[in-house]
Amino acid sequence: MNPGSSNISETPSARILRRFRADPIARIAVMIIILFALLAGGTALLSQFGHHWPFDPNLTNLEQKLLPPSPQHWLGTDNLGRDVLSRMLHGSSISLTVGLIAVFVSLAIGMVVGALAGYLGGITDQVLMRSVDALLCFPTFFLMLTAVALLGPSLINIVVVIGLVSWTGTARLVRGEFLTLRESEYVKSARVLGQNAWTIITRHILPNAAAPILVTAVLGIPEAILSEAGLSFLGFGVQPPQATWGNIIADGKTYLLDAWWLILFPGLAILIASLSFYLAGDALREAAESRG
Amino acid sequence: MTSFLIRRLALSVVLLFIISIISFFIVTMTPGSPYPWGELNPKISAEVKANFRKKFHLDRPLHEQYTLMMKDLFTGDLRSIKDDRPVMGKIMERLPATLALNITAILISLSFGTLLGVYAARNAGRWQDMAGSFVAFLFIALPGFWVSYLVAIVLVKGFGVPILGTHSYGIVFPNGFAAGLDTLWHLLIPASILAIGGIASQSRYLRATMIGTLREDYIRTARAKGLAEETVLYKHALRNSIRPLVTGIGMLLPALISGSVIIESIFAYPGMGRLFYEAVLERDYPTIVALNFIGAALILLGNLLSDLLYAAVDPRVRLE
Asked: In chain B, at which end, N or C, are there fewer CB atoms within 10 A of the end residue's CB?
């Protein structure tokens, strides 16, 4: 079938998927994301069996410290002689995990708050939305840094804190969708038929709000990745010796003027991964918004 | 207008109250001790510890600690646990640098964001528009600390130009003008890096508004009477798409104040962001709470200013 044409019997999700797949930028972005996921997954799987490729990320070798990229160490070595490529591969699973789980946390909170505010309205709506306003005028990074620094930096704390400060956008969006859909004919008829609130929300409202929610979720992943990188960089990310893209740069900053490869490559990984998620999310938004 | 201001101020007070409670409880409920000498230091006698606890009200129940901290914050008696200096004094010392950095960053975001947004809107749907949105996402995805280091490598290693602090050290300038240029340079580098994300969001927002404006009848009229395209775009269309430019101030501030934590730390820029980072490292509770409070107050003020400015520049808007 011609990817540009539409079909009357086509379901909305099939239409969105078709338009998404017709977008060349979206294809490239998704391929890059899959590549990152495979590399991260493969590295994690290999290390489960005690194998490392190309090297053990924590193997120090002071005779080979601060070596520039070479055929042996493709992306060079750090101040302890550890292979940068190996450390980046191990760091990629941290970044992707943080991105996915933090978004999951923020979606869960945002959807519950937004649904309650939008469906119940009245005083509940007022209280919840004023709290959202309060969080929005918080300098978010101050809040994250305060919480992570004082709770102690660990993977679980970072994920929860990033999720806890980033749900406001989702809550506003879900509330807006609920306010519109609550007045729609099919929700009214479901109510007249005597269906309870839970069924109406889960069966009739949420599926119709799924596309914009999915878009905010995808766009939330790179934000979480960037937040984690920033926290890692300040020394409040996942702790060494576990490598993350952010803490490779943080460790490398001491050797800034001598070892550019410690800065350049992990940063490129952060940039390419988050850019791919942004572009994929934007393509998904366009596919969901456009008609035809 | 007056009733608008009163309601906004009342809402701001409520929001600041919520914010102060959240930050106070994050700080006090988390494990760890605020003692500058460490929890289990054997050289510190019980008496000194008791005096310290009494001085910073740590011996009181939590709700009293909160009220005392807020009272001290407003009377200016709040003292840093770390160096016993008044917290407000420490913040006021840093405030001018932070304001200079953030205002410069806002100006850079607005001007370059406008250029990019107008460019994308006038070419809507064409490859230039796609390229513009790619650049915007590229800018959003750039980690600020990484860009800072790349810039540092290029400028310091490649050209030997100093970039840290607010001015070059150890150089005597022939006149005030040269010294001023030096200070401006030290401001522009971190401000530009801080503004990268703002340029992107500003351009996206303006593009969307501008595409709508360009469909209006008065734009068709302006083109029909043979006005130059630049005049149509920048005089007729941009003036009617001014909203993103004005509300941008309020929207950009939270991200900028957040971003300044990292950028100020890297560039050794003596602003609030770096003070905050130092306070977090030292577990200086009063300073952390005060900075969260002042940061949020700045954001609320920015939002209010942008609303007022919006009503001032667009006569169609009434504040009620």
From this structure: C
pLDDT digits (tens, 9 = 90+) for A207-263: 888 888 999 999 999 999 999 999 988 888 888 888 899 989 988 888 888 889 999
Alpha-carbon Rg for chain B in angstroms: 24
Alpha-carbon gap, residue B253 to B101, rounded angstroms: 11
Three-state DSSP class for residue A54: coil
- A210 close contact with B: CB closer than 8 A: no
Whether ipTM tops 0.85, in short, is yes
pLDDT band at A1 (very low <50, low <70, confident <90, very high): very low
Beta bridge partners of B79: B86
Is residue B203 within 8 Å of residue B215, measured between CB atoms? no
Task: Evaluate whether A16 touches A288 at the Cβ level (below 8 Å).
Answer: yes
SS3 content of chain A, % helix, strand, coil (to 5): 75, 0, 25
Q: What is the Cα–Cα distance from B283 to B285, expressed in whole angstroms?
A: 6
Q: Provide the Cα torsion A61, A62, A66, A71; round to 10°.
A: -40
Residue with tokens 């006021």: B92
Q: How far apart are CA B194 and CA B258, in angstroms?
A: 10
Interchain proximity B149–A137, CB inside 8 Å: no
C-beta of residue A85 within 8 angstroms of C-beta of residue A69: no
Residue A142 has its nearest CB partner, among B133, B134, B292, at B292
Burial of residue B10 (CB within 10 Å: 0-12, 13-18, 19+) is exposed
Q: How far apart are CA A201 and CA A195, in angstroms?
A: 10
pLDDT band per the 50, 70, 90 thresholds, residue A2: low
Q: Which two tokens stand for residue B158?
A: 């490649």
In the predicted model, residues of chain B with pLDDT beneath 70 are 36-39, 320
Among A33, A131, A132, A142, most B C-beta atoms within 10 A, so best to mutate, is: A142
The Cβ of residue A42 has, within 10 Å, a number of other Cβ atoms equal to 13
| Cβ-defined contact of B261 to A142 (cutoff 8 Å) | yes
Name the pTM for this structure.
Answer: 0.89
DSSP-based three-state secondary structure for B86? strand
